[in-house]
Specification:
31% of the residues lie in helices and 23% in strands. By secondary structure, it is of the alpha/beta class. The strands form two sheets. It has a ten-stranded mixed sheet, sandwiched between helices. The radius of gyration is 19 Å and the shape is globular.
């Protein structure tokens, strides 16, 4: 894991999230890209160079944030981009050879009922970039125990497990695989390939209506300090993924959540 991207919003948690990102990047010896994406709609005939003003203010904001944290000699690159959020982030990740995008749950939302705000939810829902969701105010600590929850262990994509492998190797983590049998269970869903067998330390099975309910049932027994789930069209969050904002009553995690791109 060599390149990590952190989109920055205007939340009060921005400093905390950025410090976690630096601490996490230092562990891997990774470069950190701190970015802000803006989009401007101006009326015809506007004389002011609005783009230039916003770009300048955005860079100044990011520079000020970085100046307030302990950078720990991590190489930090500050970038601002104009464009649509998802398209711009995907392009930036491709050009920058990004291994992971690290986001905070709420970049602008102030509602205490919200887990993932509109911006963060859109990033998770509409991209295939591996992501790490870091709870607000969460301080970095080594990851010793990972709960990896899936309803299907079938893997058809190359390198999809790489982010999880990197975390496990770096922290010598224990990975506990939870196979959740839902009403959508299909033949072969619980068959592990050699790559996955080599990655996990233990495997357990449960029957639940959703993967999330399986996680809730086994969370206390596993006591993880990181949850790993899979992003897919009808995957971990199911109905929660159908809109960008995700409420805490639909899903909430007090620990970092590693979101892998779809296995299939």
């Amino acid at each position: 894991m060599k390149n990590i991207l952190v989109p920055v919003g205007s939340s009060s948690n921005a400093l905390s999230n950025l410090q976690y990102a630096v601490d996490f990047a230092q562990t891997f010896g990774a470069k950190l890209y701190v970015v802000q994406v803006y989009n401007v709609y101006t009326k015809a005939g506007t004389m002011l160079k609005v783009d230039d003003i916003i770009e300048r203010e955005s860079k100044a904001y990011l520079t000020d944030l970085v100046s307030q944290i302990d950078t720990k000699n991590v190489e930090i690159v500050i970038k601002t981009f104009k464009g649509k959020l998802i398209d711009t982030l995907e392009l930036a990740c491709k050009v920058g050879d990004i291994d992971l995008i690290l986001i905070e749950p709420r970049t602008t939302s102030i509602s205490d009922e919200v887990y993932l705000g509109k911006t963060s939810g859109k990033i998770i829902k509409h991209t295939q970039i591996p992501a790490l969701i870091v709870p607000e105010g969460y301080k970095f600590k080594p990851v010793s125990n990972i709960l990896f929850a899936v309803k299907s262990a079938i893997i058809k994509k190359d390198d999809v497990l790489n982010p999880l492998k990197s975390v496990k190797e770096q922290f010598k983590s224990v990975v506990n695989l939870l196979l959740v049998k839902t009403p959508f269970y299909g033949e072969g869903d619980f068959v592990l390939n050699d790559d996955l067998k080599a990655l996990v330390d233990s495997t357990s099975k449960t029957v639940n209506a959703t993967t999330y309910q399986g996680v809730l049932e086994h969370f206390q027994a596993n006591q993880p300090d990181m949850l790993c789930v899979v992003r897919r069209k009808r995957g971990f969050f199911v109905k929660a993924w159908e809109k960008n904002i995700i409420l805490k009553k639909e899903f909430y995690s007090s620990i970092p959540v590693l979101v892998l791109s779809g296995l299939k």
